Automatic annotation (TrEMBL):
PANTHER family: GLYCERALDEHYDE 3-PHOSPHATE PHOSPHATASE, N-ACYLNEURAMINATE-9-PHOSPHATASE. InterPro entries: HAD-like_hydrolase (IPR051400), HAD-like_sf (IPR036412), HAD-SF_hydro_IA (IPR006439), HAD_2 (IPR041492), HAD_sf (IPR023214). Keywords: Hydrolase, Magnesium, Metal-binding. This is Haloacid dehalogenase. It holds the Pfam family HAD_2.
Length: 251
């Protein structure tokens, strides 16, 4: 019985379950988006136009606003600034949603976390803003659906973070009171303030150069880390090499 410690001893702040944001939390969306932007820009530049291509990549990344700019608006601006970009707005969005998946990878430290949470029988789930089909494809590509079925996607649920309803529904799914849930996310308003307002404890993943907004008290973030790897010792998990299990999960 010593291998299965009481759940509450595994997590900080007297919590016994976890909820995660998806983008730039359980996977590095910024890396995946940069990879897509580079491939997209290469379509419109030859090998002698490296400087121009880098300018376009920088524009595509800045315009994205960490994923918070609506895709219709995003590609409207892209076509306006780069008239050589071909295709309708609808086709560009569909191509983006298909192609960006190729750049999504599961980092070793996140694989390790998921495996150890399952081994220790710590319940966890995902609360993410976004379009259902796109977010489902990301989750399936990462293999996270093999570890939890407590997954809430705003477009399908009907409310998006920071609305309390989506956090409360996730807590009900985990069958835990909100004060026993630790929410991990990178967005100060949608993730950290949203979870805090329903009584959850919070961990802010601070990705540079994003800064904490002045209108939100920094006290709503109970803990702060700068990389996902920093989260492992915080949760009492050992940084040992991740192993593929017999079912072949998360190859």
């Amino acid at each position: 019985m010593s291998d299965l410690q009481p759940e509450k001893t595994l997590l900080p702040l007297q919590t016994s379950a976890l909820l995660f944001d998806l983008d730039d939390t359980l996977h590095h969306r910024s890396k995946a988006f940069y990879g897509w932007a580079r491939d997209f820009a290469q379509r419109y530049h030859d090998s002698s136009q490296q400087a121009e291509m880098r300018v376009m990549v920088d524009y595509l990344v800045d315009l994205d606003n960490h994923g918070y700019r609506p895709r219709e608006q995003y590609f409207t601006y892209v076509k306006h600034n780069y008239p050589t970009v071909e295709g309708s707005i609808e086709q560009l969005i569909a191509d983006y949603q298909r192609d960006v998946i190729d750049h999504i990878i599961l980092e070793n430290e996140i694989l390790l976390l998921l495996q150890q949470l399952r081994t220790r029988r710590v319940p966890f789930g995902i609360v993410t803003n976004g379009v259902g089909q796109q977010q489902k494809r990301k989750i399936k590509t990462l293999g996270i659906d093999a570890y939890t079925d407590c997954i809430f996607i705003s477009k399908e649920f009907g409310k998006q973070k920071p609305d309390p309803a989506i956090f409360l529904a996730a807590a009900q799914c985990l069958q835990k009171p909100t004060q026993e849930i630790l929410f991990v996310g990178d967005n100060p308003e949608f993730d950290i303030w949203g979870a805090h307002q329903v009584g959850m404890k919070t961990v802010w993943i601070h990705h540079e150069p994003r800064q904490w907004p002045e209108q939100i008290s920094p006290e709503v973030a109970d803990l702060t880390v700068h990389t996902f790897a920093d989260l492992l010792p915080l949760l009492g998990l050992q940084p040992v090499a991740a192993k593929e299990d017999s079912a072949g999960d998360l190859k």
